[in-house]
Amino acid sequence: MEKEVQLSSHALRIIELYSIKIRKRSRRTYNKKVLGTFVSKEQVCSDEAKQLLAEAQAFFVQGDSAAVKSKIQELFIATKGVYSRDAYRLLAAVAEQDGQKDKALSARYLSIMTLGGESFQDYSSLLYDLEKAGNRDQQIINICKRALTQRFQVREIYEKMAFSYLKKNELRKAVDRGLLPSFLESLRHGKPPHEECLLAVQYLEKIGRFTEACTILERALNRCFELNVPANDDLNKKYAEILLTRMRDFRGCAEFYLKLWQLAKTGDPQKDAVFKIPEGWKLRKHLGARDFVKLAQLATALIRLGRYDEVDATMQYARGSREGECAICVEAVNVIEDLIENPDFGDNLPRVKNWFSGVITALVHRKEYTVVKRMLGRMKRADLLFPEFQKIYGEVFYLEKQYSEALEQLEPLLEKFTAAEKDEQKAADEKEEQANLVAGEKKEEILDQQALRVLLAEIYTHVQDSTAFARVLQGVGYSELQSLKRLPQPMSLERREALFFELRDDLQKAWTVYNKRAGSPSSSSSGTSAEEDLTNLLPKEWGNRFAGLVYDCELDEERAGQAKQVELENETGENFTKKARAMTIRHKKRSLGLASIEDVYSSDVWLDFVRFGCFFGLGTCFQAPASAVELLELCIFHRKRHHKHGVKMNRKLPELEQASMALALEARLSKIVFKYIRTFMLEPDLKNPDRPLIRENVVALFARLVAANSVDFLDQRSTLEGMQARVSEYQKWLARHLCNNPTAFTLLMFVAHCSSINGRHQVFLILTILP
After folding, report:
1. Which of 3, 26, 213, 303 could form an S-S bond across to 362 if both were Cys, CB 3.0 to 4.6 Å?
2. 224 or 570: whose pLDDT is higher?
3. What's the start-to-end Cα distance of the chain, in Å?
């Protein structure tokens, strides 16, 4: 920490030296290199130049703009491309008189950049006009640099340079060349740099230079102390915030507030022995007068340091002792808890809820569940339990294995979340303004929905509710489950077998009824009623239970993978054997006691059940092809991963891929469809394995889908350029196969069609005329 502070101080010192170097730089003269020769001041101010300038001024008084421009052109030739200040001013006045404000600004800009300004007022007025004109950020930056070379190092110059860099989204240059020098100028003039410091710290945070931000805040606070001026509260809060949240320096944050409130150890044994921390009620009164944000920051830092221990409130403890810090921490939490019942607390909670949540999270981290439940219970009675606090409330009940109480808190929260999503979808179909309003209101209640669903699924596993387990995981994709650190607990083998046989029997009964209806003559006459009756073939919860069983069995792969990864990270040295490294996922599943339906009854039985359940159960009966495709892709992914690790490819895999492609066509999932069609389009040739044959019927289907992509498969957010880019990729891939199979007529016409979409009409004509 001390090394980082020294480095940041060194960086600030370099900036100070750079500013001094600019301040000592001498003013530039009229000497300018033009076309390989130097033009001196005497040449610019010669008698001929003065005479031409006087004639131009006379014409300007007469209002003859053309004559003025002609004389200025002669002056330009006489001085070899360098005007005097008076000539530039006259040129700007003529342009402004003709209503050409941009040319007038350009003349003034060239005057400043070439010859410099005579006073700071020249720079200030030009900067004001450039800002007023707009879109002149680079010119403003150049003028500011020119002013700095002429020793006009004013805070206004640095600020304008910083804001211009910010408009160009160059944050590092804005900080180094504008905001930090502006802060140093304020320090140099002996003023408390509140605004400059906060602005510099704001952008230092954005670019991740937290140590430097702390150094700036320390210098600003020290300057306030030197001037005997009370520091701005925003400076204190920002300094503690960076120490607490960015640098995780809990000790530094705690000591900062303890010193600020005169509760820290002074270093003098005699004073520390005499001035002791007040008794409990005095300490609570002392802390109660403080700002809530500061109090929450102090409490969070002390809790993270392990200082939340109950001590005797009637005793007095020396400053700096562990018992004294424990007393301060406990009383600070008690003051925050008492503020919950304050009538004004509800109005201020949206502003300070992040810091209140920090206190709650720190207490949960220290396993102080009783205190957390007491505080959140008070908030619930006061009707102030925001969704993020309600989630923590449910997690605490879950950690204490009180599952019914946890479900009481988390289930309504998930219902609110799904209802809000439906409202957003409805608003998105309407006007954009209304959708933006709904999205803006929703930002205040953002939660990690996937983690909430996994937490509920884990609770349902403990209470053995498989239907609810499948229902809550229905909105979670497999890739999202993989990214979570905690997976749901697996069901027992007995529960899996019972659920498997129950679901399979329901599926077979539904298939028998479906065949009878399809074979009856009355079904052809009443097609619509038959489609409506498909949803009644299976129980309403069959789809959720089926998806839950597939998820639970397939997640064994990830559970074993995570356990193996943890074992590999923990085992080091001689205990880490080659056998442990070479252990496969299947061996790890056996060592963990994870047995799925596939392990007990064979892969063919399990994959046939999954394929038929997805195709007929979810795709036909429940009309949910997207969910069916997700489950099939999950099974395909695991089988292909085992094949990469040396396991023999399952012979049921092509059937799964064909079912996934058919359901993806129905669900309009173009990426999955194109992936499998490109695979099925090639047929291996036993005589020549390097040149596979082309299935022209699959090529025809591929071409039909690409033609419909602009209408049916194209997402609303996609653009025409995006569609052309994808078609161009298809064209390159198809052209390579056309070279190997020049006689494939369907492939030839497909490449011609792609060329027409991309605007390559010459290629299109050549390919269509060739046959």
Report:
1. 303
2. 224
3. 76
